Amino acid sequence: MWKLARVAATRLTRSRRFSTAIPGPCMVHKRGADILHDPWFNKDTGFPLTERDRLGLRGLLPPRVISFEQQYARFMESYRSLEKNTHGQPNSVVSLAKWRILNRLHDRNETLYYRALIDNIKDFAPIIYTPTVGLVCQNYSGLFRRPRGMYFSAKDKGEMMSMIYNWPAHQVDMIVLTDGSRILGLGDLGVQGIGIPIGKLDMYVAAAGINPQRILPVMLDVGTNNQKLLEDRLYLGLRQPRLEGEEYLEIVDEFMEAVHARWPKAIVQFEDFQMKWAFETLERYRKRFCMFNDDIQGTAGVALAGLLGTVRAQGRPLTDFVNQKIVVVGAGSAGLGVLSMAVKAASRMAGNSEAVTRNQFFLVDKDGLVTKERNNLDPAAAPFAKAPGEIAGLSEGATLHEVVKKVKPHVLLGLSGVGGIFNEEVLKAMRESDSTKPAIFAMSNPTLNAECTAADAFKHAGDNIVFASGSPFENVDLGNGKVGYVNQANNMYLFPGIGLGALLSGARSISDGMLQAAAECLATYMTEEEIRRGILYPSVDSIRHITAEVGAAVLQAAVAEELAEGHGEVGPKELQHMSEEEIAEYITANMWFPVYSPLVHEK
Ligand SMILES: NC(=O)C1=CN([C@@H]2O[C@H](COP(=O)(O)OP(=O)(O)OC[C@H]3O[C@@H](n4cnc5c(N)ncnc54)[C@H](O)[C@@H]3O)[C@@H](O)[C@H]2O)C=CC1
Ligand SMILES: CC(=O)C(=O)O
Ligand SMILES: [Mg+2]
């Protein structure tokens, strides 16, 4: 069951610094200016003189050779001066300026970019990931300078099997795929949603050490139903309504077959699909391909780890989870994913049937409390709908405020995409919670879509709450030297480890057991002392360490379920015989780290 004290004794506080070990060579099939224009290989002024000679670069760069450390320091200096120069300007202006400077480096020199990202992940994650990535998607057509990733559109039907060979890398390990239909809480952004796979894959490189030459962000452009975009003359996607039904599925099928044909071991993460397709594609592909849906499955594991953390924060044994009353707001792919994983965990703990366990959970959507009396009740939400009369005084469609007042929940968890719906009235009602330490999870992204701000949560619900949000907020000063701690409850704590474990085990598919192992690993990561202080998740600074641990847990689960087919030279038998230490070593040894490798030209 849940092993509690397996807590990281050796936290990796700092990533490897500028090491003096000589890295292995890297084969390159180009020469001269082509190398300078390829961000995978470009070292800018960092090319040593001998390499300039070997690769036909002599004379194409200023003569002085600048070390990686100096280049890094120079970049950070310009980043810091940009911070200084934009001080006091509106948030969106500052964030976009920061995104631009990072993006320019990304486009020019990936080694330096990823080193800067890894070493400053806490500062940079909010730029390349939520919340700024949302703003970038919204302004994509204006910000577009050069493409990144691949774009498969409805017009490419019948061509995908050959198109996939247009991608220049021989091997791809990780693909993040979206159709742009539900980008964060921002709705249908069509082709502009490509920013999300790019941001997620940046996190894969930074947290899981996936080699950036082996990642592929993909946009499946099947049209958009966003009228504003359809009318925007600069819109870069297909100007047609979204494909529906079989026509839609044929496109996704063709893409999945094409990927599988070229890279049978690549892992495909589905991201930010509207709910109906999120569930349908997961069911359709999860046994046939090594894939998962991050919004349904990654989010569920992170939320479950947080829910278990709140039990510990109350000083109660984990088994008390089965007595917690949890109100989930949002009956979409994320909310329902959380509910189904949480129900399974609770029924395992209580030895109950899932039907009994469901009593402790309450589901609220845009039409209020979800009950079996709901007209056109969504079949996916039906298992969590309350029976008529099940809760005295609450009927179908009861408002969130009524539900909170009546239920007095231990946890209020928002995945609605609607900013501010945990308003003053709702938050004040949480003061009557039956918990000694009520928890408020405002998990919707980006920041403006969070159900409440951290400051409002502590102000209205009280100083003793546990708080988590999907996008980062500053800790809250509660006065008298007390601090209200802000957790970031974001699937970034799990998806990189799920992908890493699946990749290094060579998993045939991604099972519930592997996802459960990931969630358990995160749930047991924090110390009692941290949890008592309301800290439920590791700091973003240690994301590489938690990801390695999650990766190991996922790999072990894949081996135990006989889903592991091996990776590279390491076969399934060897995986089976690895000790825990050997697995940990195997994982970290396979995590890419940005250093300049000697480039060797190969024709
Ligand atoms: N923190 C994290 O790691 C994650 C956060 N999310 C966030 O969760 C949000 C929802 O994502 P999905 O479930 O995929 O979206 P979805 O569109 O599938 O579902 C949204 C749900 O919210 C409900 N809703 C809308 N207005 C409401 C209101 N006023 N009151 C109560 N419920 C309301 C809808 O009825 C629907 O059930 C997004 O903002 C997304 O950014 C999603 C995945 C991970
Ligand atoms: C974090 C994430 O996956 C989302 O907001 O959709
Ligand atoms: Mg998402």
List keywords for this structure.
single chain, 603 residues, alpha/beta, 5-stranded parallel sheet, globular, disordered N terminus, binds 1,4-dihydronicotinamide adenine dinucleotide, binds pyruvic acid, binds magnesium ion, Aminoacid_DH-like_N_sf, NAD(P)-bd_dom_sf, metal-binding, protein homodimerization activity
Explain the layout of strands and helices:
Blueprint: E1 26-28, H1 33-36, H2 49-54, H3 68-85, H4 91-108, H5 110-119, H6 121-128, H7 132-138, H8 140-143, E2 150-153, H9 160-163, E3 174-178, H10 195-208, E4 215-221, H11 227-231, H12 245-262, E5 267-270, H13 275-285, E6 291-293, H14 294-313, E7 326-329, H15 333-350, H16 354-357, E8 361-365, E9 368-369, H17 400-407, E10 411-414, H18 424-429, E11 439-442, H19 454-461, E12 466-469, E13 476-479, E14 482-484, E15 486-488, H20 495-505, H21 512-523, H22 528-532, H23 543-560, H24 572-576, H25 580-589, E16 599-601
Parallel strand pairs: 1-16, 2-4, 3-4, 3-5, 5-6, 7-8, 7-10, 10-11, 11-12, 12-15
Antiparallel strand pairs: 8-9, 13-14
Organism: Dipteronia sinensis
Domain Malic enzyme N-terminal: 106-286
Binding site for (S)-malate: 182, 445, 490
